Amino acid sequence: MKMKIALFLLLPFAIIAIGATAATKPESKEVCVNQPPELAGQNIGFELIDVLRRQAWVTTDWTLEDYSNFSPGLASPGWIKNEPRVGFATKTSVLRSPSCDEDGQFVYQTQFGRTFFHIADISQIGPTYGDNRKIKAAIVTKYHRLQFDPGQNISVLLSPAGEAFIRVNRPVDVTSLDPELPQDWTIQEFVLSATWQADLFGKVQVLRLEDGTSYQGPVRLPKDNSA
Predict the structure, then answer these.
(1) Among 65, 150, 202, 216, which one has the highest count of C-beta atoms within 10 angstroms of its own C-beta?
(2) Contact 219, 154 (CB under 8 A)
(3) How many CB atoms lie within 10 A of CB 79?
(4) Residue 77 predicted with pLDDT over 50
């Protein structure tokens, strides 16, 4: 089984919506440098949210055990941590940080003794769909590319309006992948007959199901696939 990074997003929506009054300054920071993040061979990513600035930052420099014991603490009230997530794509890549003008440029900062790169800006929290808020939505700005190989099964969430959202990732501790959906929302699965690439560029809708599984888009589905 090929390893794949979980570049995941997202988000503890309710906590983000509350906001914060302070954010910890980075220990060091590099802005829009031509240095892609080291992602090869990683299958789990760890994300912190800068609540005040509404930014998501990712690192692979952690273990699950150490991350579970980590807390930003009272000294860093502007930061919260997202649950670790695993991805479904065969290959994923981030083309640039959203605050940079060119592909290949990234913003880095050292925080809590680890180096993070800026993966997304959080533009909007909400709305929610269905009774009991079965689907929580957000809009983020990012430049994220997913690749799926021939023979791979992909899962697509279809909205009542016919928009398609590709399954991107889920929390590492999810045991069920069959969450309840609002009325007129459906999930379809396909087996690819050829390599397919999904580009999540610019403003991207992130839809989070009850079990935490994230579908993102909308995307154009491949024309040649089998149910």
Answers:
(1) 216
(2) no
(3) 21
(4) yes
Amino acid at residue number 97: S
- CA nearest 166: which of 205, 224, 115? 205
Residue pair 146/166 in contact (Cβ under 8 Å)? The answer is: yes
- Is pLDDT at 139 greater than 60 in this prediction? yes
Buried b (16+ CB within 10 A) or exposed e, 140-176: bbbbbbbebeeebebbbbbbeeeebbbbbbbbeebee
- pTM for this prediction: 0.85
- Which strand (E) or helix (H) includes residue 80? strand 79-81
CB 77 within 8 A of CB 21: yes
The whole-angstrom distance between residue 146's C-alpha and the CA centroid of its chain comes to 11
Which amino acid is present at 150?
Answer: P
Secondary structure of residue 162 in the 3-state scheme: coil
